[in-house]
Protein backbone atom coordinates (compact mmCIF):
# COMPACT_ATOMS: atom_id res chain seq x y z
CA UNK A 1 0.00 0.00 0.00
CA UNK A 2 2.79 2.40 0.93
CA UNK A 3 4.58 1.64 -2.34
CA UNK A 4 1.44 2.38 -4.35
CA UNK A 5 0.98 5.62 -2.45
CA UNK A 6 4.58 6.50 -3.29
CA UNK A 7 3.84 5.93 -7.00
CA UNK A 8 0.70 8.06 -6.81
CA UNK A 9 2.45 10.92 -5.00
CA UNK A 10 5.32 10.69 -7.47
CA UNK A 11 2.80 11.21 -10.27
CA UNK A 12 1.46 14.28 -8.46
CA UNK A 13 4.99 15.57 -7.88
CA UNK A 14 6.02 15.05 -11.51
CA UNK A 15 2.88 16.33 -13.27
CA UNK A 16 1.77 19.09 -10.89
CA UNK A 17 2.98 21.61 -8.32
CA UNK A 18 0.91 20.12 -5.52
CA UNK A 19 3.11 19.62 -2.41
CA UNK A 20 3.93 15.99 -1.61
CA UNK A 21 5.33 14.23 1.47
CA UNK A 22 9.08 14.64 1.90
CA UNK A 23 9.67 10.88 1.85
CA UNK A 24 8.63 10.70 -1.81
CA UNK A 25 11.57 10.27 -4.20
CA UNK A 26 11.68 10.21 -7.99
CA UNK A 27 13.67 7.12 -8.90
CA UNK A 28 13.46 5.87 -12.47
CA UNK A 29 11.47 2.78 -11.51
CA UNK A 30 8.83 4.78 -9.67
CA UNK A 31 8.65 7.38 -12.45
CA UNK A 32 7.93 4.63 -14.97
CA UNK A 33 5.05 3.38 -12.85
CA UNK A 34 3.57 6.79 -12.07
CA UNK A 35 2.16 7.07 -15.62
CA UNK A 36 -0.61 4.66 -14.54
CA UNK A 37 -2.13 7.64 -12.69
CA UNK A 38 -1.95 10.05 -15.64
CA UNK A 39 -5.74 10.15 -16.14
CA UNK A 40 -6.32 10.54 -12.41
CA UNK A 41 -4.00 13.54 -12.43
CA UNK A 42 -6.28 14.93 -15.13
CA UNK A 43 -9.29 14.52 -12.83
CA UNK A 44 -7.41 16.32 -10.05
CA UNK A 45 -6.24 19.18 -12.28
CA UNK A 46 -9.69 19.52 -13.86
CA UNK A 47 -11.29 19.45 -10.43
CA UNK A 48 -9.01 22.25 -9.26
CA UNK A 49 -9.98 24.29 -12.32
CA UNK A 50 -13.65 23.66 -11.56
CA UNK A 51 -13.24 24.89 -7.97
CA UNK A 52 -11.64 28.10 -9.22
CA UNK A 53 -14.40 28.55 -11.81
CA UNK A 54 -17.12 27.90 -9.23
CA UNK A 55 -15.64 30.39 -6.77
CA UNK A 56 -14.92 33.04 -9.39
CA UNK A 57 -18.43 32.76 -10.88
CA UNK A 58 -19.85 34.32 -7.71
CA UNK A 59 -17.78 37.45 -8.31
CA UNK A 60 -16.99 37.73 -12.01
CA UNK A 61 -18.81 37.22 -15.33
CA UNK A 62 -18.66 33.78 -16.94
CA UNK A 63 -15.88 34.54 -19.42
CA UNK A 64 -13.56 35.85 -16.72
CA UNK A 65 -14.38 32.87 -14.50
CA UNK A 66 -13.49 30.50 -17.34
CA UNK A 67 -10.24 32.35 -17.97
CA UNK A 68 -9.30 32.23 -14.28
CA UNK A 69 -10.12 28.52 -14.24
CA UNK A 70 -7.92 27.94 -17.27
CA UNK A 71 -5.06 29.94 -15.77
CA UNK A 72 -5.35 27.97 -12.54
CA UNK A 73 -4.87 24.65 -14.37
CA UNK A 74 -1.78 26.07 -16.05
CA UNK A 75 -0.45 27.18 -12.68
CA UNK A 76 -1.11 23.90 -10.87
CA UNK A 77 0.70 21.92 -13.58
CA UNK A 78 3.51 24.44 -13.95
CA UNK A 79 2.57 24.77 -17.64
CA UNK A 80 4.07 21.29 -18.00
CA UNK A 81 2.06 20.20 -21.05
CA UNK A 82 1.88 23.69 -22.56
CA UNK A 83 5.68 23.75 -22.52
CA UNK A 84 5.73 20.43 -24.36
CA UNK A 85 3.31 21.77 -26.95
CA UNK A 86 5.46 24.87 -27.52
CA UNK A 87 8.60 22.72 -27.84
CA UNK A 88 6.88 20.53 -30.43
CA UNK A 89 5.79 23.59 -32.41
CA UNK A 90 9.35 24.92 -32.40
CA UNK A 91 10.98 21.56 -33.07
CA UNK A 92 8.85 20.42 -35.95
CA UNK A 93 8.41 23.94 -37.28
CA UNK A 94 12.11 24.75 -37.39
CA UNK A 95 13.79 21.36 -37.79
CA UNK A 96 14.08 19.22 -40.90
CA UNK A 97 15.98 16.23 -39.53
CA UNK A 98 15.45 14.04 -36.47
CA UNK A 99 18.56 15.33 -34.72
CA UNK A 100 17.68 18.96 -35.40
CA UNK A 101 14.07 18.55 -34.26
CA UNK A 102 15.13 16.84 -31.03
CA UNK A 103 17.81 19.47 -30.39
CA UNK A 104 15.31 22.32 -30.81
CA UNK A 105 12.76 20.63 -28.56
CA UNK A 106 15.42 20.21 -25.88
CA UNK A 107 16.26 23.93 -25.99
CA UNK A 108 14.63 25.77 -23.06
CA UNK A 109 13.98 28.88 -25.15
CA UNK A 110 10.62 29.37 -26.86
CA UNK A 111 10.69 30.43 -30.51
CA UNK A 112 8.22 32.00 -32.90
CA UNK A 113 6.50 28.73 -33.75
CA UNK A 114 5.99 27.98 -30.08
CA UNK A 115 4.60 31.42 -29.26
CA UNK A 116 2.22 31.44 -32.22
CA UNK A 117 1.15 27.89 -31.42
CA UNK A 118 0.40 28.75 -27.79
CA UNK A 119 -1.60 31.83 -28.77
CA UNK A 120 -3.71 29.75 -31.15
CA UNK A 121 -4.09 26.97 -28.56
CA UNK A 122 -5.12 29.30 -25.73
CA UNK A 123 -7.55 31.21 -27.94
CA UNK A 124 -9.23 28.06 -29.22
CA UNK A 125 -9.50 26.54 -25.76
CA UNK A 126 -10.93 29.69 -24.18
CA UNK A 127 -13.57 30.33 -26.84
CA UNK A 128 -14.53 26.65 -26.95
CA UNK A 129 -15.12 26.60 -23.18
CA UNK A 130 -16.91 29.95 -23.36
CA UNK A 131 -19.37 28.45 -25.85
CA UNK A 132 -20.05 25.40 -23.72
CA UNK A 133 -22.87 26.44 -21.42
CA UNK A 134 -24.26 22.92 -21.03
CA UNK A 135 -22.58 21.04 -18.17
CA UNK A 136 -19.42 23.15 -18.24
CA UNK A 137 -18.14 21.85 -14.90
CA UNK A 138 -18.08 18.18 -15.87
CA UNK A 139 -16.78 19.19 -19.31
CA UNK A 140 -13.67 20.77 -17.78
CA UNK A 141 -12.96 17.68 -15.69
CA UNK A 142 -13.63 15.36 -18.63
CA UNK A 143 -11.42 17.42 -20.94
CA UNK A 144 -8.44 17.02 -18.66
CA UNK A 145 -8.96 13.34 -17.86
CA UNK A 146 -9.84 12.19 -21.39
CA UNK A 147 -7.01 14.09 -23.07
CA UNK A 148 -4.52 12.47 -20.70
CA UNK A 149 -6.18 9.10 -21.18
CA UNK A 150 -5.87 9.36 -24.96
CA UNK A 151 -2.27 10.56 -24.62
CA UNK A 152 -1.35 7.29 -22.91
CA UNK A 153 -1.93 5.60 -26.28
CA UNK A 154 0.98 7.64 -27.66
CA UNK A 155 3.17 6.32 -24.85
CA UNK A 156 2.00 2.75 -25.44
CA UNK A 157 1.99 2.59 -29.24
CA UNK A 158 5.19 4.44 -30.11
CA UNK A 159 8.80 3.96 -28.92
CA UNK A 160 10.76 6.64 -27.12
CA UNK A 161 12.63 8.63 -29.76
CA UNK A 162 15.67 9.90 -27.87
CA UNK A 163 18.66 7.61 -27.60
CA UNK A 164 20.47 9.56 -24.87
CA UNK A 165 19.70 9.56 -21.15
CA UNK A 166 19.62 13.34 -20.75
CA UNK A 167 15.86 13.78 -20.82
CA UNK A 168 14.09 14.07 -17.48
CA UNK A 169 10.96 12.63 -19.11
CA UNK A 170 12.58 9.46 -20.45
CA UNK A 171 11.51 7.32 -17.50
CA UNK A 172 7.93 8.55 -17.90
CA UNK A 173 7.67 8.50 -21.70
CA UNK A 174 9.14 5.01 -22.14
CA UNK A 175 8.26 1.46 -21.01
CA UNK A 176 4.51 2.09 -20.84
CA UNK A 177 2.62 -1.11 -20.01
CA UNK A 178 -0.75 -2.40 -21.25
CA UNK A 179 -2.04 -2.60 -17.67
CA UNK A 180 -1.31 1.12 -17.26
CA UNK A 181 -3.24 1.83 -20.45
CA UNK A 182 -6.28 -0.09 -19.24
CA UNK A 183 -6.21 1.61 -15.83
CA UNK A 184 -5.97 5.03 -17.49
CA UNK A 185 -8.93 4.16 -19.71
CA UNK A 186 -11.08 3.25 -16.71
CA UNK A 187 -10.27 6.48 -14.87
CA UNK A 188 -10.12 8.76 -17.91
CA UNK A 189 -13.50 7.81 -19.33
CA UNK A 190 -15.33 7.83 -15.96
CA UNK A 191 -16.36 11.54 -16.13
CA UNK A 192 -18.33 10.86 -19.34
CA UNK A 193 -20.90 8.89 -17.34
CA UNK A 194 -21.86 12.11 -15.52
CA UNK A 195 -23.12 13.76 -18.69
CA UNK A 196 -26.86 13.82 -19.33
CA UNK A 197 -26.57 11.79 -22.52
CA UNK A 198 -24.39 8.89 -23.62
CA UNK A 199 -24.16 10.48 -27.05
CA UNK A 200 -21.21 12.29 -25.50
CA UNK A 201 -19.07 9.19 -26.12
CA UNK A 202 -19.09 10.13 -29.81
CA UNK A 203 -16.96 13.12 -28.85
CA UNK A 204 -14.11 10.69 -28.18
CA UNK A 205 -13.71 9.86 -31.86
CA UNK A 206 -12.13 13.13 -33.13
CA UNK A 207 -9.51 13.40 -30.32
CA UNK A 208 -8.62 9.74 -30.79
CA UNK A 209 -8.15 10.31 -34.52
CA UNK A 210 -6.08 13.40 -33.72
CA UNK A 211 -3.86 11.26 -31.46
CA UNK A 212 -3.34 8.69 -34.21
CA UNK A 213 -2.44 11.40 -36.73
CA UNK A 214 -0.02 12.99 -34.28
CA UNK A 215 1.55 9.62 -33.52
CA UNK A 216 2.01 8.92 -37.21
CA UNK A 217 3.53 12.37 -37.67
CA UNK A 218 5.96 11.91 -34.77
CA UNK A 219 6.90 8.44 -35.98
CA UNK A 220 7.63 9.74 -39.48
CA UNK A 221 9.91 12.57 -38.41
CA UNK A 222 11.66 11.38 -35.24
CA UNK A 223 10.90 7.67 -35.12
CA UNK A 224 8.61 7.78 -32.07
CA UNK A 225 7.59 10.03 -29.20
CA UNK A 226 9.12 12.08 -26.41
CA UNK A 227 7.76 13.74 -23.28
CA UNK A 228 7.20 16.91 -25.31
CA UNK A 229 5.21 14.93 -27.88
CA UNK A 230 3.03 13.53 -25.10
CA UNK A 231 2.46 17.03 -23.70
CA UNK A 232 1.51 18.37 -27.12
CA UNK A 233 -0.85 15.44 -27.66
CA UNK A 234 -2.57 16.14 -24.34
CA UNK A 235 -3.09 19.80 -25.18
CA UNK A 236 -4.31 19.18 -28.73
CA UNK A 237 -6.70 16.35 -27.84
CA UNK A 238 -8.14 18.42 -24.98
CA UNK A 239 -9.04 21.22 -27.41
CA UNK A 240 -10.35 18.75 -29.99
CA UNK A 241 -12.57 17.19 -27.31
CA UNK A 242 -14.12 20.56 -26.47
CA UNK A 243 -14.67 21.34 -30.15
CA UNK A 244 -16.19 17.89 -30.65
CA UNK A 245 -18.69 18.55 -27.86
CA UNK A 246 -19.73 21.83 -29.51
CA UNK A 247 -20.35 20.05 -32.81
CA UNK A 248 -22.14 17.17 -31.09
CA UNK A 249 -24.48 19.40 -29.11
CA UNK A 250 -25.29 21.38 -32.23
CA UNK A 251 -26.85 18.33 -33.89
CA UNK A 252 -28.38 16.37 -31.02
From TrEMBL:
<feature type="transmembrane region" description="Helical">
    <location>
        <begin position="37"/>
        <end position="60"/>
    </location>
</feature>
<dbReference type="GO" id="GO:0008818">
    <property type="term" value="F:cobalamin 5'-phosphate synthase activity"/>
</dbReference>
<feature type="transmembrane region" description="Helical">
    <location>
        <begin position="201"/>
        <end position="218"/>
    </location>
</feature>
<dbReference type="InterPro" id="IPR003805">
    <property type="entry name" value="CobS"/>
</dbReference>
<keyword id="KW-1003">Cell membrane</keyword>
<dbReference type="GO" id="GO:0051073">
    <property type="term" value="F:adenosylcobinamide-GDP ribazoletransferase activity"/>
</dbReference>
<keyword id="KW-0460">Magnesium</keyword>
<dbReference type="GO" id="GO:0009236">
    <property type="term" value="P:cobalamin biosynthetic process"/>
</dbReference>
<feature type="transmembrane region" description="Helical">
    <location>
        <begin position="110"/>
        <end position="130"/>
    </location>
</feature>
<comment type="pathway">
    <text>Cofactor biosynthesis; adenosylcobalamin biosynthesis; adenosylcobalamin from cob(II)yrinate a,c-diamide: step 7/7.</text>
</comment>
<keyword id="KW-0808">Transferase</keyword>
<keyword id="KW-0169">Cobalamin biosynthesis</keyword>
<keyword id="KW-1133">Transmembrane helix</keyword>
<comment type="function">
    <text>Joins adenosylcobinamide-GDP and alpha-ribazole to generate adenosylcobalamin (Ado-cobalamin). Also synthesizes adenosylcobalamin 5'-phosphate from adenosylcobinamide-GDP and alpha-ribazole 5'-phosphate.</text>
</comment>
<protein>
    <recommendedName>
        <fullName>Adenosylcobinamide-GDP ribazoletransferase</fullName>
        <ecNumber>2.7.8.26</ecNumber>
    </recommendedName>
</protein>
<dbReference type="GO" id="GO:0005886">
    <property type="term" value="C:plasma membrane"/>
</dbReference>
<comment type="similarity">
    <text>Belongs to the CobS family.</text>
</comment>
<feature type="transmembrane region" description="Helical">
    <location>
        <begin position="136"/>
        <end position="158"/>
    </location>
</feature>
<keyword id="KW-0812">Transmembrane</keyword>
<keyword id="KW-0472">Membrane</keyword>
<dbReference type="Pfam" id="PF02654">
    <property type="entry name" value="CobS"/>
</dbReference>
<feature type="transmembrane region" description="Helical">
    <location>
        <begin position="178"/>
        <end position="195"/>
    </location>
</feature>
